[in-house]
Structure formats: C-alpha cells, structure tokens
C-alpha cells in the first residue's frame, strides 16, 4: 500500500535530524503520531521549578496546558535512540509528554533478545524496532513479515517461557476504560486557566469586601463544573460497562507444558499473540483478533459493522502474501464479535491463532476512537477567545489609566492595586462562561422533553451551523431489512405478470427451486439466519431448510449438505403443462457448494443436487445488469431493459435469477474443484425478484425539509451500493431525474489502478457511452473499496469527489470516520445520524453525532434520540440555531455590559468618584444576571429556513454594529454628564483628598443612565425571527424588563429616602432638580432609538456583508467546498474517465 507521505516499508519516516520521527501504520495507511526526543537536564529542570515558584506557581498551570512549551523549557532535545522523554503529538497536533520505559525480552524464535525501549500513547504501546532503528507498534516488531504460509503451516504452540516473555511485552489482553474519581475530575477541571482567573477575581472581591457577588459567582461556577463532572463521569461509566459486558470469562488454549501439549482454560486477559485458541461449538464472544486455521465459524459482527447478518468465516488458505487483518478479513475473527456457531468435519476442533490483543484489536481501535475523538474546532469558541483577548487588552489600557490617576493623587498602594486590578474583573467578567451556558441549558432541557438527550451541551450551538447531514441507511432512513414486493417469472424468453403469492407458481418450476436454493442461509439454534434479502426470498417460497445432523443425508453420495424442501401447499398455476407433477414432500434438494456473494461480481451461485435426479445443476442470482451478460441471449426477454428500468426508476431493488444444468458426469468432487467462472456462464434466465427496503414514514419529509433549508444530505452505509442508490432516490436525497455516477477502480495489480465510472439506473442500456456531470445536477456514488484506493492512489481527487458525492456504500466503521473527517476538512459543519456500533467512530468525529440506539453508539454520540427516526435532526437544528443566536446575544450583552461598566468606572474615577457596593451588586446581580438568565428562555422558531445564523463573532458585519453600540453607550453617558455640568445648581466633587466620594450627582447620573443601557441592550439583543420565537413569548424576560425599567425610572425620578440611602443616590429635593431628573429620562429614550436603529438596519444585514466584500475585493467563497464546486478542471477530468462495462 502506498502511504500518504514519503515513508519506508518498515512503517516510519524520519523528519530532518533523527531527533524526531513520524510513526506510520502501513496496514491501515495512516500516520499514527509524531514523536520528538528529549532527555532530562538537571540545569533546565532547576530553572524550570525556580521560575515557576517565583511566579506564584502560575507557569506550572501554563505548562500543564501547553506540554510542547514544557518539553522545550524543561528538557533537552536528543537523538531518538537515547531519549528518556517523548513529546508525542497526534494528527490533530494535540501533544502529551510520555516517559520512555525499558523491558528485557528473550524471544529467539522471533529473533529478539536483549532490552526493548517503549512508551505509551493513547493506550497504544510503541517499541524500538532494531531492524529499522525507529519506533513502531508491537506488530511491526514481531508480526509484520508473517505470510499466510507462516500461519497455515506452523501449528506449534507457545511454550511456557515464550508465553511469559510475550505477556511481559504485550501486557494483559484487556480493553480497560478508566473511570476517574470525581475528585480527580474536579482537580483537572479547576486547573483550567479560566477557573484560575475566576479564583483570582473572587479573591480580589473578597479583599475589597465585595462578598455577596463573589459568593454568587462561586455558586454558579460550582453548579456548572459539578454538572460537567457528572456528565463526564456518566459517559465514562457507560462506555466502561458496555466494554465489560462484551467480554467472555474463559477461553481454551493450547499450551506446551512440561508434560507436552495440552488444552487448558484460562482467563482471556492472559492471551497473547501467538496463542492457539480452541473455539467452542457456539455462543462465544471473541476476546481478541485471531486468524482461523481450521474449520469455519458463523459470526455476528454487528458490533463492528452494524449488519446483523451472520458472516461465515473460513480457514486461512496457503499463500506467500503477507497476512493482514484487512486483506484476509474473511478468515479473521475479530474481538468483540459473537461466534454463533463453529463447524468442522469429523468432530475435530476449530483452531484459531491470536494475532492481536487489547487496544490493538479492531474493537480496541473502535474504543480508542471514542476515547480520543477528533477535536471539533468550533468557530464560535475561537472567536470568543479572540474577543476575550481584546477585552484583556482594553482592560490593561484602563488599568494603566487608573494607575496614572491614583499615582497622581498619591493614593495608598493597596488602593492603587485594588482599583487597577478591579478594572480587569470589570472588563473581563468572570461570569461570562456561566452566562453563555444559559441558552444552551434551556435548549438542552427542551430537547430532553422531546426525548433527545445530550452529553455534550456545547455541541448544541454547533447544531445551528449544520451544512451537511450524513445518515446511516438501515435502521436510520429505513426499517430493518427488505420486504418482497413481487416476482416476475420468465419462460421461453417471455415475462409473466408479476406474482405476489407463491401459490400461483408451480412447486417444481425452476424459478421456485432457484429461490429456495440460491442463498447463504443457515440455522443457528433452530433460528434461520442470513442476509435479509435471502430471508425474504426464501420465506416467500414457503419451503423449509434442514442442515447436517438434522436429517439423514447419506443419499447424496457426499458429506452432509444443507437440504431444502417444499412444505405442503396448493398450487394455482402451472408454468409448463407437460411438466410431470411431483408430490411436494418427495422433493429434496441438497446445496452442494456455495459461491458467496461478491460485490465485485455482483452475484452469487450455488451448485445443487436433486434426490430423484443423478444430475447436478446451478442457480445464480445477482444484479440484473450482471446476469444480462451471463445469460444465453435467446433466454432473455426482449423487454428486459424496459421492465428493469420501470422498477429501478421507482426505487425497487431488483434481483435477477438464472440457472444452468451441469453435465451428467459432474460429481461431488468436481463441484468442490469447479471454478466460479465456469459455473457462472451460459445461464438460462428465470425471472426477476422485486424487493423494497421500506422507508420510515418520517424520512421523506425530513430530507425535503433539509434540502429546503439548503442542507446537503449524504448516505454512509455498510449496505450494498445498489440498495443505497435505491433508497437515496426513494427518500428524495437524489432527485428523480438527477444522474448518479458510480465510481469504481480496476482490479489491476499496478501501483495506480484505473478509475472507472458508470451511470446507475441509466435506462435502456447497461453501458453508457457519454459521461457528463454538472455541479448541481449529478451525484457520485462509491463503495468502501473504491474509497480505500482513492485514499491510497488518488488522494488529490478526494475533495472534488466529496463535494459531489452523495452515496457511500459498503463502508467499514473506520472508513465512515475517515469520510466524516474528510468532509469536515472541506469546511462543512457535519452531522451524522446512525443507530449501530459501527457508527461510533463517525458519530464521535462529526460535529454533531446523533444516535438512534440506546446501546454502543449512544456512548460515542453527543446526542441520543428516543425518537427512533431522523426527525430528531430537525429539532436539533432548530434548537441549535436558537441556542447559537442566544449564545451570540448573551456574549455580546455580557461584553457590552462589561464595557458599559468600564466606561462608567473610568469616568467616575476621573471625577474622583466610584460606584458603591450596592450599586455594583444591583448591576452585576439584579440587572445583568437576571437579564442574562431570562433572555435565554426564548424558544426556537418552528420553521427551518435556508438562512443560517452567523458563526463568527469577529466578522466585520458583526463587529461594526457592536462597535457602534459601544460608541452609542459611551456617547449617551458622556452626554448625560455634560447635561449635568450645564446645570446652574450643580457643584462638582472637589479634587481634594484620597477617598472617592460615592454619593454625588456624577455617580447618580451615570449609575441610573447606565442601568437603563443594560436593559436596553438586553432587549435589542433578544429579537426573535428568523431563528427564535418572538421576544413577546418570553414571559419572564418581559416581566423582568418591565420591572427593572420601572424600578430604575423610580430611582432616577423620585427615589424614596431609604432607597436613596441604600443605593447611595442623591436624594430627591427641590423643583429645579426634579425637572432635571425628568429631562434626564430623554437620554435613555434616545439611546433606545439609536440602538434599535443599529440592530434593525445594520446587524446581520446582507447589504453590510456585500459592502465589506466589495471593500475587501472578495472574489471567491471562503468555504473550501464552495470553491471546489466551481472547479471546471475537475469536471472535465471526470467526464473523460473510462466507462465501466
């Protein structure tokens, strides 16, 4: 496999000097991590601790958050081979510091003796590989060169000494999900830089005797952090319980002891790679990944693939190619899968050799994808940090101005420090995150009432920006399984009318016999299991099936086959009048050999033998286009393509059936040696099977709503690509007249296989002569195999294909995750809705993952829906848009609240005054907190429109109105103060003494006017449409606004003596001051009109956006996917691809 970067076949790449390395997994074609080598330095370590202690331990907190800086400051970089410390960075540039350990190994059988260096990263153990002078995985150290022959021909068991050495190297075979204690989670939480700033602010307030508000902030912070800790703990416990529930308690292995080879039962945690497992007859959960060496096993792999259809695993064949769990998955038993039944002739044991244990297994990788998901980079949070950084800069400017004033007045040092530092807590309010979480909490509660549960509240905001919705198919868009609609038999190249009742067909007709035999069904504990298509087809025939051991089968001159026979039933129609009638109970057909369904060949076949006939015959079923080419032309009806197009255009799944009589001399041994291509040729066409995969009732209207909202939809399924295409047309994901092009790759052994394309459901001809794609009117479909080849050989084409790709079928769990990540890289905000454990990685990787299952997927998904259909996504988007707009509004409100108070404080400091404690408390607690809490109660709009809310706080179209609001606030405060200065009776505060005077006209005017401003801005930022309900529906907010406005008006116009004393306001006196107070109300009224004008005509307006685009000379879209859709060069390339025939 060709890597995505330049690397050696040994799986590593050196980056510059050998002080760093890129560890690469060639089997899964991915970079695992980057490592940077360091060694301890006593000198650097001394200065590191000294520096941290001198700065009040603050650097410890900073270095904990940024390990890259810690490594560079505390350790010395060195050669990889002598490293004591590694700075390990994953693919998302998240770094951790890991210690290097050393262990001794004595495995001469593997050519390994001496000491081995190792380190752990994200539950994976990396070891020093001497052959390559680099670090790699344990498999690269011991198993990377093993061929199929090495496994098949080597039947030796591990000796006790080899087992002990391997156990020492690999460790216990367990997938352990750590459940941290609440105390540990709390300690990790409080060392967050934000919480440290809160602690600093609270300490400063307490020092300044501002206890009440400090207590309120402590309560809010504790409530927020405790809620977060409980959710984190519950999530860990759920994942831990699920992992533990899928473990077996004991396993039988073959070991070499002092008395020779013996079979012993051990705890599965004691397994190591190389162990030989003796598989039980049934009901066994695989504790590891193992390659099957003898016999066969019927396995339920739904925990990994999501498909409930049992899979038959066969023993590994000899060969010189390197063994790989990906390439040889049909011979590999994967950890966590349910072994339903094992079979082997003569009562011999079914043997499998362990190849991977613990987190190195396929199940381990799935759990790791949940524990260490791809980080979601939220634009809103990024912008919020930028905005807070700007607030800090403003705070420092104000702080220096404050220092200048108080130094000029020769104030005491304590007062200077307290007043200066207090500016920072005013401009950067510590209650900001708690206030911003309010809207999300309300949305979360509303979703809970709809039975949509959320374990990651910040993701609710992201729901509001969804641009692309991915869906699993089975169980998500559709009900489970297929249902038989009808069959259309054919005789003498003529189609019969569609038949919906099997009683209308002759029992002995080739068509019925073909339906009864051409499948891969098997009985497990008396229950018939297999592909839903096969189950529906077989049940339609009303036949029954019996397997070896259930009936006497020695009449078939062979080892016991599976036998099918018709049940007693009346017949309504004879297909051939001269055909001899047989009694139903005398008809028994043995299925001699099965050629399994191949997605490449698009068909499956069986070789059968009838009890009453010495001859054998074959039946084949598969894609109609495939069988059209395999059948004798004379047996094909002339209206074949017309009938096919009629049903496929209506979204039905159509399967063709054919048969072939084998030569008289064709015996059982010939059947076992026969080549598939010799059987699947010169067939006689028998007819068509018409099936449907019924959609859930809610699917079509939801997909329609999403398209109307300009949200693109994509299907990612593990099912067959033709079924997926059918469902995509049915549900409206693909318009009825839109073209679907299936992208394929050749089976060439060349380094770069050729890309092929064909048109799905093309109509009259199976092959298309011309391919033409258009940006908005075509859809590309591909399967997991094609995706894998694209990632290896045509990675540069993937972005262009993804912006036009709609159907992704036969995708494995890791491929689903890869696809979601790739879509995110194109600047899509991606949601994923699924119901199976195979969706876990994709659900975790998506910006918004929604599980319709209460089991494994719910642990990985941020959202779990009790609504068993995709309508939950509509509610999530509506609530997400509402929560995002609310978060924006509250953030802007809190930012402006702090800047209003900052302006007031600086003006008062200049005037030798200050706000009183109860004035601070009234603003911070009574006004701001209650408004921030109640303004978040507005519910979502019921209409999902095409317009999405703004996602960037720092975009010009958002910043300009915000800056204008800040200017307006400052202007009206200064205007009111200027109006005060014009009064003849006014006497300013004398510029004498060091103590600030609270009770003054400057204080009263600025305090009351600013109180109005807090209420005014809360109202202006609470507009409803198009993303929220009208503000008038928010009863508690309206009540709050009216109450606060009335109370502030009362304080401004005529406060009673008691209120004036408590709030430290100028008392109500003579008539001249009364007229001043009444005219002062005009300033808040004018501010209300000005701020309303800014919000109505400037905030989030298209004209302002276009103006800035014009000024900045913007010529192309910001989002990558929009730019790719304009790529005409790719369109020309795609149109030139060779047609698949």
TrEMBL record:
Per UniProt, the enzyme's principal EC class comes to translocase
Which keywords label this protein?
A: ATP-binding, Endosome, Magnesium, Membrane, Metal-binding, Nucleotide-binding, Phosphoprotein, Translocase, Transmembrane, Transmembrane helix
Return the EC number: 7.2.2.-
As for membrane topology, the entry says: Multi-pass membrane protein
Alphabetical list of Pfam families matching this protein? Cation_ATPase (PF13246), Cation_ATPase_N (PF00690), E1-E2_ATPase (PF00122), P5-ATPase (PF12409)
Recorded hits in SUPFAM superfamilies, A to Z, give: Calcium ATPase, transduction domain A, Calcium ATPase, transmembrane domain M, HAD-like, Metal cation-transporting ATPase, ATP-binding domain N
Transmembrane region positions? 46-66, 182-204, 210-230, 387-408, 420-442, 894-915, 921-938, 959-981, 1001-1019, 1031-1053, 1076-1098
Q: Where is the P5B-type ATPase N-terminal domain?
A: 34-107
BP terms from Gene Ontology: intracellular calcium ion homeostasis
Start and end residues of each Cation-transporting P-type ATPase N-terminal domain: 158-204
Protein's UniProt keywords contain Cell membrane: no
Q: Which InterPro entries match?
A: ATPase_P-typ_cation-transptr_N, ATPase_P-typ_cyto_dom_N, ATPase_P-typ_P_site, ATPase_P-typ_TM_dom_sf, ATPase_P-typ_transduc_dom_A_sf, ATPase_P-type_domA, HAD-like_sf, HAD_sf
What reaction does this catalyse? Answer: ATP + H2O = ADP + phosphate + H(+)
Listed under GO cellular component are: late endosome membrane
Superkingdom of this entry's organism?
Answer: Eukaryota
An MF annotation (GO) of this entry: ATP hydrolysis activity
Indicate where this protein is primarily found: membrane
PROSITE patterns noted in UniProt: ATPASE_E1_E2
The chain positions of domain P-type ATPase A read 257-370
Q: PANTHER family per the record?
A: CATION-TRANSPORTING ATPASE, CATION-TRANSPORTING ATPASE-RELATED
- Please report which protein family the annotation says this sequence is part of: Belongs to the cation transport ATPase (P-type) (TC 3.A.3) family. Type V subfamily.
Name assigned to this protein: Cation-transporting ATPase
Q: Which organism is it from?
A: Ceutorhynchus assimilis
């Amino acid at each position: 496999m060709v890597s995505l970067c330049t690397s050696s076949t040994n799986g590593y790449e050196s980056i510059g000097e050998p002080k760093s390395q890129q560890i690469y997994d060639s089997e899964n074609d991915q970079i695992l991590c980057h490592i940077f080598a360091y060694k301890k330095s006593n000198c650097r370590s001394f200065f590191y601790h000294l520096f941290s202690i001198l700065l009040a331990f603050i650097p410890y907190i900073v270095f904990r958050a940024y390990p890259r800086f810690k490594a560079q400051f505390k350790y010395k970089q060195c050669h990889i081979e002598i490293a004591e410390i590694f700075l390990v960075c994953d693919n998302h540039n998240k770094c951790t510091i890991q210690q290097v350990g050393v262990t001794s190994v004595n495995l001469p059988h593997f050519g390994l003796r001496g000491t081995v260096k190792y380190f752990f990263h994200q539950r994976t153990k990396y070891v020093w590989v001497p052959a390559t002078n680099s670090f790699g995985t344990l498999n690269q150290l011991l198993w990377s060169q093993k061929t199929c022959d090495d496994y098949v021909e080597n039947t030796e068991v591990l000796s006790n000494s080899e087992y002990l050495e391997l156990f020492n190297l690999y460790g216990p075979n367990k997938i352990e999900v750590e459940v941290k204690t609440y105390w540990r989670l709390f300690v990790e939480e409080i060392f967050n830089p934000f919480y440290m700033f809160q602690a600093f602010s609270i300490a400063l307030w307490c020092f300044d005797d501002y206890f009440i508000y400090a207590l309120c902030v402590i309560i809010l912070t504790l409530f927020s952090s405790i809620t977060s800790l409980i959710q984190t703990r519950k999530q860990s416990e759920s994942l831990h319980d699920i992992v533990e529930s899928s473990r077996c308690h004991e396993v039988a292995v073959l070991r070499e002891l002092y008395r020779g080879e013996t079979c012993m039962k051990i705890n599965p945690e004691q397994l190591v790679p190389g162990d030989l497992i003796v598989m039980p007859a049934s009901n066994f959960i695989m504790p590891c990944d193992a390659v099957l060496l003898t016999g066969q096993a019927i396995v339920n792999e739904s925990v990994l693939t999501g498909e409930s259809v049992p899979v038959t695993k066969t023993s590994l064949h000899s060969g010189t190619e390197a063994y790989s769990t990906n390439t040889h998955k049909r011979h590999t038993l994967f950890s966590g899968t349910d072994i339903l039944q094992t079979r082997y002739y003569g009562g011999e044991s079914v043997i499998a050799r362990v190849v991977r244990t613990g987190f190195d297994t396929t199940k381990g990788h799935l759990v790791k994808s949940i524990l260490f998901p791809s980080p979601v980079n939220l634009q809103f949070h990024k912008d919020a940090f930028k905005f807070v950084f700007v607030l800090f800069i403003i705070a420092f400017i104000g702080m220096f101005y404050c220092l200048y004033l108080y130094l000029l007045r020769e104030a005491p040092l304590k007062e200077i420090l307290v007043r200066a530092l207090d500016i920072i807590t005013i401009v950067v309010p510590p209650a900001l995150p708690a206030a911003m979480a309010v809207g999300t909490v309300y949305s979360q509660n509303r979703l809970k009432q709809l039975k949509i549960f959320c374990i990651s509240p910040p993701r609710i905001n992201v729901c509001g920006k969804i641009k692309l919705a991915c869906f699993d198919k089975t169980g998500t868009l559709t009900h489970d399984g297929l249902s038989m609609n009808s069959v259309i038999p054919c005789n003498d190249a003529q189609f019969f009318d569609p038949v919906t009742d099997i009683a209308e067909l002759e029992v002995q007709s080739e068509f019925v016999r073909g339906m009864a035999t051409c499948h891969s069904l098997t009985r497990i504990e008396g229950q018939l299991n297999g592909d839903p298509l096969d189950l529906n087809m077989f049940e339609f025939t009303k036949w029954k099936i019996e397997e070896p051991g259930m009936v006497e089968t020695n009449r078939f001159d062979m080892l016991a086959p599976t036998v099918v026979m018709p049940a007693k039933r009346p017949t309504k129609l004879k297909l051939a009048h001269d055909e001899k009638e047989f009694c139903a109970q005398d008809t028994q057909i043995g299925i001699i050999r099965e050629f399994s369904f191949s997605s490449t060949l698009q068909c499956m076949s069986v070789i059968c033998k009838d009890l009453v006939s010495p001859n054998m015959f074959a039946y084949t079923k598969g894609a109609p286009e495939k069988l059209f080419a395999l059948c004798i032309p004379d047996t094909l009806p002339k209206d074949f393509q017309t009938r096919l197009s009629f049903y496929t255009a209506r979204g039905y799944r159509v399967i063709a059936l054919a048969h072939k009589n084998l030569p008289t001399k064709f015996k059982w041994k010939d059947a076992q040696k026969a080549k598939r291509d010799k059987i699947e040729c010169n067939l006689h066409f028998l007819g068509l099977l018409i099936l449907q995969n019924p959609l859930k009732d809610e699917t079509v209207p939801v997909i329609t709503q999403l398209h109307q909202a300009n949200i693109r939809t994509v299907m990612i399924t593990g099912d067959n690509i033709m079924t997926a295409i059918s469902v995509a047309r049915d549900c409206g994901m693909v318009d009825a007249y839109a073209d679907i092009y299936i992208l394929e790759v050749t089976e060439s052994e060349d380094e770069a296989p050729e890309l092929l394309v064909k048109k799905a459901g093309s109509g009259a001809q199976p092959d298309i002569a011309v391919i033409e794609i258009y940006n908005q009117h075509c859809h590309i479909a591909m399967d997991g195999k094609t995706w894998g080849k694209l990632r290896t050989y045509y990675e540069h084409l993937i972005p262009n294909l993804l912006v036009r790709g709609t159907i992704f079928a036969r995708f494995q769990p890791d491929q689903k995750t890869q696809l979601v990540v790739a879509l995110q890289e194109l600047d899509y905000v991606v949601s994923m809705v699924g119901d199976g454990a195979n969706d876990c990685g994709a659900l975790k990787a998506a910006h918004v993952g929604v599980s319709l299952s209460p089991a494994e997927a719910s642990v990985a998904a941020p959202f779990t829906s009790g609504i068993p259909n995709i309508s939950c996504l509509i509610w999530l988007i509506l609530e997400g848009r509402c929560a995002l707009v609310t978060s924006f509004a509250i953030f802007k409100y809190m930012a402006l609240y702090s800047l209003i108070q900052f302006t007031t404080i600086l003006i008062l400091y200049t005037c030798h005054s200050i706000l009183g404690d109860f004035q601070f408390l009234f603003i911070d607690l009574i006004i701001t907190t209650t408004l921030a809490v109640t303004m978040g109660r507005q519910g979502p709009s019921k209409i999902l429109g095409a317009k999405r809310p703004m996602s960037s706080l720092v975009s010009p179209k958002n910043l300009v109105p915000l800056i204008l609001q800040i200017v307006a606030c400052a202007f009206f405060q200064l205007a009111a103060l200027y109006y005060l200065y014009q009064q003849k009776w006014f006497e300013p505060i004398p510029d004498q003494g060091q103590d600030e005077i609270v009770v003054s006209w400057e204080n009263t005017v600025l305090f009351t006017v600013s109180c109005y401003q807090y209420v005014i801005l809360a109202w202006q930022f609470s507009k409803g449409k198009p993303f929220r309900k009208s503000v008038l529906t928010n009863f508690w907010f309206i009540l709050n606004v009216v109450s606060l406005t009335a109370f502030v008006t009362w304080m401004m116009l005529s406060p009673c003596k008691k209120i004036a004393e408590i709030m430290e306001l100028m008392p109500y006196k003579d008539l001249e001051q009364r007229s001043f107070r009444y005219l002062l109300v005009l300033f808040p009224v004018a501010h209300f009109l000005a701020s309303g004008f800014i919000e109505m005509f400037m905030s989030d307006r298209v004209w302002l956006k276009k103006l800035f685009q014009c000024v900045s000379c913007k010529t192309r879209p910001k989002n990558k996917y929009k730019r790719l859709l304009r790529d005409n060069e790719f369109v020309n390339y795609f149109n030139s691809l060779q047609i698949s025939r």
